[in-house]
From TrEMBL:
Range of residues in the leader sequence: none
Cross-referenced CDD domains: SEC14
All copies of domain CRAL-TRIO, residue ranges: 163-308
UniProt-recorded name of the protein: CRAL/TRIO domain-containing protein
Source organism of this protein record: Nadsonia fulvescens var. elongata DSM 6958
Length: 397
């Protein structure tokens, strides 16, 4: 298992990348009416002060980008309020390190700060306006049973998509079996909400050192009657636009000849970064380059004889959600920790020498750990249990 810190994450940033991260936070803190007092910044890897002209403007609406050009954050906020956007960001955090969540967007936009901010704003708008992502994350499975939502329950019961095993880099594995999909049996919206449900569930299995997932499209029993373009396009858009840098590898297993024409359509939807992570694999030997036999299901030649069966909710599994007093106390603790992280980040952004930089960075890192601990304390009081909780895949640290 590999647990080294990959490039472009906290703990493995170049001086320039760290400055871009500081610039990003300066914009976002400006959006929250919290502004640095200094026009200088120091990367942790260098003891000398590095000045970037206009790096931290005092205006709430306008912050200078590193190249000196003006960037008006309102131009990408659109119909979102500043506080609304930041609230959505902190909700999206889950158990992640806030810096590493920001860095996903920076890496996806090749460290271009204005483009990364635009991407974050678009994602928060998508989570708030296009889909009730928090509602899907916290209640969707339980609500599907309460409302007898047969379309959503069908996705769970079919086994067409599940999370099972880890690859050689310790990344969780999504297994998608289109042979179990009938496009006529559910709406496009139901499939989209199910996709979000699975991605958000999988995020709870990630950690800072293992922050991407592997997807296997098992096409061994695929036929044209299973093909459904809209959900494929939606999944691609999710990983490209709203869950950046979450995809480690996508393996297309035993694609039949009839898939060639379909692939000619799909590949035009892919950006180069995602396309580079796609590999066609024909047999177990190809899969073994990524996944060992103990984490490979037997129908793909591995030793895991697991047979998917949906485990239904059990009485009392969500009892903690009734304890609003404990919930409110833990949520208040979380608010305090968020303010502590923002304060430490502000000190880090304002730092004018390496000692100040490192001191603030250490406080920030410790607070990020406390935020993760708090997330898992809060979780059973605000999120109904899912299949992945019942089978032990999702569990607190």
């Amino acid at each position: 298992m590999v647990n080294t810190i990959s490039a472009g994450r906290i703990g493995n940033l170049t001086s320039e990348q760290e400055l871009r991260l500081k610039d990003m936070w300066a914009h976002l803190l400006a959006a929250s009416n919290t502004l640095p007092q200094s026009g200088t910044s120091t990367p942790a890897t260098n003891g000398e002060t590095s000045k970037i002209k206009g790096f931290f403007s005092r205006s709430k609406e306008e912050v200078k980008a590193p190249n000196g050009s003006n960037f008006d954050i309102n131009s990408v906020l659109g119909d979102l309020e500043h506080d609304e956007m930041m609230s959505a960001f902190w909700n999206m955090l889950r158990g992640d390190n806030p810096d590493n969540l920001i860095l996903r967007f920076l890496r996806a936009r090749k460290w271009d700060v204005p483009k990364a901010i635009e991407m974050i704003c678009n994602t928060m708008r998508w989570r708030l306006k296009e889909f009730d992502v928090e509602g899907i994350f916290h209640y969707q499975e339980a609500k599907a049973f309460e409302d007898d939502n047969s379309e959503f329950l069908l996705q769970l019961e079919s086994g067409k998509c599940r999370i099972r095993g880890r690859d050689k880099q310790n990344r969780p594995i999504f297994i998608i079996k289109p042979c179990f999909h009938n496009p006529k049996l559910q709406s496009e919206r139901a499939l989209e909400e199910f996709t979000i449900y699975v991605i958000e569930s999988a995020r709870l299995t990630l950690k800072d050192h293992v922050d991407t997932a592997t997807i296997i499209f098992d096409l061994s029993k695929f036929s044209l009657s299973n093909m459904d373009y809209p959900p494929v396009k939606f999944m691609i858009n999710c990983f490209e636009a709203h869950y950046p840098e979450c995809l480690g590898a996508l393996l297309i297993y035993k694609a039949p000849f009839i898939f060639q024409g379909i692939w000619n359509v799909i590949k035009n939807w892919l950006d180069p970064v995602v396309a580079a992570k796609i590999n066609f694999v024909r047999n177990k030997e190809d899969l073994n380059k990524y996944i060992d036999d103990n984490n490979l299901e037997s129908d793909m030649g591995g030793n895991d004889d697991y047979e998917y069966k949906y485990v239904k909710p059990v009485d009392g599994e969500n009892n903690k959600m009734k304890d609003t007093e404990t919930r409110d106390k833990l949520l208040q603790d979380r608010k305090v920790l968020i303010e502590q992280f923002k304060s430490a980040t502000l000190d880090w952004v304002k730092s004018t020498n390496k000692a100040e930089n490192d001191k603030a960075a250490n406080v920030k890192a410790a607070t990020a750990v406390d935020l993760r601990k708090n997330f898992w304390l809060v979780d059973p009081y605000v999120r109904s249990r899912t299949l992945y909780d019942r089978i032990g895949l999702i569990k607190a640290d």
